[in-house]
Amino acid sequence: MKRLTVPKVMQRKEDGTTQEPLVMLTAYTARQAQLLDPHCDMLLVGDSLGQVIYGLPSTLPVTLDMMCAHGAAVVRGSYHALVVVDMPFGSYEASPQQAFTSASRVLAQTGAAAIKIEGGHAMAETVRFLSQRGIPVMGHVGLTPQAVNALGGYMARGRNEAEHARIIADGNAIADAGAFAVVAEGVVEDIAITLTRSLSVPVIGIGASAHCDGQVLVTEDMLGMFERVPRFVKKYSDIAGMIDDTAARYASEVRARTFPGPEQVYRAKSD
Ligand code: KIV
Ligand code: NA
């Protein structure tokens, strides 16, 4: 099957509306990508892997090497979805040139077709610089986790008028600069409605209501790998419970010496 391309994703909103919402999930490993790929239009190698895979307290310590390694694994495991790789904190903010150096390395080392950067107005020049040089950029506005120290936490954004207007301006600034899609995270419903109506490119929501051109979630959140998840997550499964139960059965069989059983034992060839 042929992989979905950036122009194809943009075409989904050609007449200004998206008939069938774009489906996106995070993926960090090859096998996970392989399982999710048939169901998704896009796979995001999110820097959320800092917390989800590495147990880090935030996304800030995530490195370009980590994103390249996981990005390459996800590309190897997928065939159909467009793979987007997050640019980690510190790898793109200093200048458009720094962003180009980092982003070109990500595309070259992973085989992914696009990168994602957080930020609005302040990143518009960088989005333009990359887009004009062959690097498709997905934007990310609203709750931008790399700005946790400036924002003071992971609370929903746009609850007062000034912030509301700023997030809409941010989304427009990066779309005007050439972003091929924009993630809107943790924003009030009105912002999602306005952004989705006003931007000519797809708006992918996470904690941003159903009024978007697509949705993204952290796969482990949606699978029920974690006890505590944000309000906007729906747990479609209880994978944590299944792993706990499965490990408990294995442990009890090992302790009872009922595993390995006869079926799992190698024997000498007999005639
Ligand atoms: O890192 C991530 O997983 C993300 C999304 C959830 C949008 O940026
Ligand atoms: Na991210």
UniProtKB/TrEMBL annotation:
**Quick check: keyword Transferase in the entry?**
yes
UniProt-listed Pfam families:
Pantoate_transf
Q: What class of enzyme is it?
A: transferase
Q: Where in the cell is it found?
A: Cytoplasm
Pathway named in the protein's UniProt entry: Cofactor biosynthesis; (R)-pantothenate biosynthesis; (R)-pantoate from 3-methyl-2-oxobutanoate: step 1/2
Could you say which EC number(s) this protein's record lists?
Answer: 2.1.2.11
Binding sites annotated in the UniProt record for 3-methyl-2-oxobutanoate: 47-48, 86, 116
Q: Which UniProt keywords apply?
A: Cytoplasm, Magnesium, Metal-binding, Pantothenate biosynthesis, Transferase
* Primary localization: cytoplasm
The record's annotation in SUPFAM superfamilies points to: Phosphoenolpyruvate/pyruvate domain
Which stretches are transmembrane? none
- Top-level division of the source organism's lineage: Bacteria
Named from the GO MF annotations, one term is: 3-methyl-2-oxobutanoate hydroxymethyltransferase activity
Question: What residues bind Mg(2+), as annotated?
Answer: 47, 86, 118
Q: Catalytic residues per the record?
A: 185
What is catalysed by this protein? Answer: (6R)-5,10-methylene-5,6,7,8-tetrahydrofolate + 3-methyl-2-oxobutanoate + H2O = 2-dehydropantoate + (6S)-5,6,7,8-tetrahydrofolate
What does the entry's cofactor note say about binding and number?
Binds 1 Mg(2+) ion per subunit.
Cofactor entry: Mg(2+)
Give the matching InterPro entries. Answer: Pantoate_hydroxy_MeTrfase, Pyrv/PenolPyrv_kinase-like_dom, Pyrv_kinase-like_dom_sf
Question: Subunit composition?
Answer: Homodecamer; pentamer of dimers.
The UniProt function text for this chain reads: Catalyzes the reversible reaction in which hydroxymethyl group from 5,10-methylenetetrahydrofolate is transferred onto alpha-ketoisovalerate to form ketopantoate.
State the similarity comment. Answer: Belongs to the PanB family.
Q: What protein am I looking at? A: 3-methyl-2-oxobutanoate hydroxymethyltransferase
Source organism of this protein record: Croceicoccus esteveae
